[in-house]
Write a structure and sequence with these properties.
This protein is an alpha/beta fold. Helices cover about 50% and strands about 10% of the residues. Strands 3-2-4-1-5-6 form a 6-stranded parallel beta sheet, with helices on both faces.
Length: about 300
């Protein structure tokens, strides 16, 4: 989606499911072109959470300017609205210096909200309300939260992942603050030009690749990372600690859950996440140019030509 001689800011995005190799592709593109990398991962924003989020390595972070990685502590709040504000600022600054930013990440909502320029209400967290809703979730179940959101803003049920309690609680928080909002998440006029590279592969092979990555994370000290986070006082009930693997390994460390079972649950949860990502990054989306991991050279050539 390029307009010749356009003065609009420009952005290259690399999307696809977890474990498919997006970071490696971005680094290989960066080796050929003057770019900066913008993270689009809802877990890599947290400090001290490196192994389990598959964060770029220290060498990668030092080799290419990275943004929206390691920017908050695990007990800080982070929202879609905050991501949009920060990423837009980075895109404009990079283009001002003549660099093309590369958006890299698997958090589909973040990616599409930026590319489609969603209008997102900025509502600050309400700790009292959150504790109330968490009590309802624990004592009465998720159906009561669904009923509450339905009564506040029926349309919000079409915009939120109703199976994700954290997203559901946030939707109630927004709806209770603003009431029904027919303009929530509406698409505004685009303000930058973008091209999107998609990395994908056959599902069964991707599951195997993701399972291998979980095993490598365990070998790299994932369990020790979770142990350190707990020792630092970060509660397993924090949104950051609800990330894939963190919850399962904290259950092992705090409640004695079998470690093999915790690892297997991490793998199964990764599979479910991959299936959800497919809903965001659809193969039939005409905006996405898809490549297999075996076609990285072609993807790099495509990116280099677009960057110019």
């Amino acid at each position: 989606m390029v307009i010749e001689n356009s003065s609009h800011p420009r952005l290259l995005a690399i999307v696809g499911p977890t474990a498919v190799g997006k970071t490696d592709l971005a680094m290989r593109i960066a080796a050929r072109s003057d770019v900066e990398i913008v993270g689009a991962d809802s877990r890599q924003v947290y400090r001290h959470m490196d192994v389990g989020t598959a964060k770029p390595s220290p060498d990668q972070l030092s080799a290419v300017p990275h943004h929206l990685v390691d920017i908050i502590d695990p007990d800080d709040d982070f929202s879609l609205g905050m991501f949009l504000d920060l990423s837009k600022e980075v895109i404009l600054n990079a283009n001002t210096t003549g660099k093309i930013p590369i958006l890299v990440g698997g958090t589909g909502q973040y990616v599409m909200a930026l590319l489609e320029n969603w209008n997102v209400p900025l509502v600050p967290p309400d700790p009292v309300l959150r504790r109330e809703l968490e009590y309802i979730l624990e004592s009465q179940g998720i159906d009561d939260l669904l009923s509450r959101l339905r009564s506040l803003d029926p349309g919000a049920l079409e915009r939120v992942d109703a199976a994700n309690p954290r997203r559901l609680i946030r939707a109630i928080e927004v709806a209770q603050s603003h009431g029904p909002d027919p303009n929530a998440l509406r698409r505004l006029d685009p303000w930058f030009e973008f091209s999107v590279i998609g990395l994908g592969m056959e599902r069964a092979a991707l599951y195997e690749r993701a399972d291998d990555r979980v095993d490598r994370m365990m070998d790299a000290g994932f369990l020790d990372e979770v142990r350190r986070l707990l020792a630092m006082g970060y509660s397993p009930d924090l949104p950051s600690m609800s990330g894939i693997g963190y919850h399962e390994l904290a259950d092992h460390l705090m409640n004695g859950a079998d470690i093999s079972d915790a690892v297997q649950r991490t793998k199964f949860r990764t599979h479910r996440y991959i299936r959800r990502q497919a809903n965001w990054f659809r193969r039939d989306d005409p905006r996405i140019r898809w490549f297999e991991p075996t076609q990285l050279d072609s993807a790099i050539e495509y990116a280099a030509k677009w960057i110019g």
